[in-house]
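Reposting from the mailing list since nobody answered there.

I have sequence plus structure tokens for a pair of proteins and want to know whether others read the tokens the same way I do. The first protein:
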Amino acid sequence: MPETGESTAYVIEMTLGEAIREALAEEMSRDPNVFIMGEDVGRPGGIFMVTKGLYEEFGKDRVMDTPIEEAGIVGLAVGAAMTGMRPIVELMFTDFLPLAMEQLVNQAAKMHYMTAGQARVPMVLRATLGTGRGAAAQHSQSLHVLVAHIPGLKVVMPSNPYDAKGLLKSAIRDDNPVVFLEHKMCYSTVKGPVAREEYLLPLGVADVKREGQDVTLVAISRMVQVALAAAETLARDGISAEVVDPRTIRPLDKATLLKSVMKTGRAVVIDEGHLSYGVTAEIASIIADEAFDYLDAPVKRLAALDVPVPMAPVLEAATIPNEARVVETVKGLFGRRY
């Protein structure tokens, strides 16, 4: 939704995919140094049609199809960024991130630090993540924790069209390498109001998607939609749930998360990444360390099972958090009162 105080005179309904496409087009029109490259991003319009029409609008020199070579694509982007360009790389799936980790982790993330500020790498790496399409173990993973672990990288995970557009525009203008992760199931199914006039959203600022008094649901990416649905169900049982969307997991807005938990006294952290050693563990640790005296119950975590993602839809769905699990977990925090 539009930020507080923003005009709503020019707001239209968009899908998340449409909002990302509009952000790309606006930034390419604004800055001739911005260009896109990746597999099938040109005439095909990308595997999920997010870049459709950009090749025709901006030409082959700014919307470039590449060979199937993730390390090479990201390496080219690092070099281009260091020489003054602002490349946007599209990887089809986060499952392919490991193929580009050398360039991303050892080059893009460290160049500014290792040159004492003389070099900068203003690039954006876009990729999809998440389950929901029956695409099995090599095309359904949520590997955001891999890049969130690396100093020098910023990691953005929008949950709705308004946030996606404003955050992507900010990411493109940032002088640091940004990994921008989009849930593939949100491209066409998640719709919402998007301001047509110019707006940016700052990286590192969380957003309270629903206010509540009894429990805080910290949810990442598509899990925000799950948390909001669970909050509606909980409300019918007399439990008021606050839903907080970090929007960026690096940098992480600790202040907003802690403020919410200090108010509600209970917290559930929800993510589609694996449970072990993941984002839920980091956020739960922060809450336990810095808001312990305000907690009325242990911090609970809901995340993907520690198994490869199955292909069968019923098994795939069983591996990730859903509304029913969130509701059950929250009610457990209140014992037998509900």
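The second protein, same order (residues first, tokens after):
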Amino acid sequence: MAYQLHYWPTIQGRGEFVRLALEAAGAEYVDVARGDEGVPAMQRFLADPSVARPPFACPFLVDGKRVIGQTAAILQYLGPRVGLVGRGEADQLWAHQIQLTTMDLVTEVHDLHHPIASALYYEDQKPEALRRSQDFRARRLPKFLAWFEAILQRNPRNTGREVPRLVGGSLSYVDLSLFQVVDGLQYALPKAMKKAMRKAPRVAALHAGVQRHRRLAAYLASERRIAFNQQGIFRAYPELDG
């Protein structure tokens, strides 16, 4: 039975982290809200009182009778089932920690353009966004990239490898998630990322290597890959790039 991914049909958002894993693994899945059933099929799980364990929001994954919400939890569930994490408990726990930290970074990126409230337009909180972006570019972005760079350097399986991995020696879902964050930030903050990536050569090598993965390369070049836009998490406001 195909996995059912539920997420908004016009943005990458947090659902894209799950899409990347499913595409890289060659797993059979349906992107429900982009199909014939549309958004109402997704909203039924969010609003129907007969759903005993409703997700708080999308993305969520339906696998048979299981409904799994939260991006990191979905990937923790999928990873061992689609071969995108090691079999050992230590590797799986470490991958989950990395994913949680990655999602912390994603939240900070979102809050660049919505630092006060998600319900307000960017234009209604632009002064606060400008202040927050200054701190993000100067402190938070370098700190996150330095951590990713350090764990890539400390992974003994990366010795002599052209494309480093975050966990073990094989492609994992956290590699895909780091790729997505770098890709999104290069769209949103191209000047800041060009400067920051000079100190993160291993992160840059991972990002470049993921793009060459056979299934991922095909996906990235296809219509299934939604383009970055001004409704998603990664938004290109030049004034936030310094």
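Reply #1 (J.P.):
I read it the same way you do. The longest strand covers residues 3-6.
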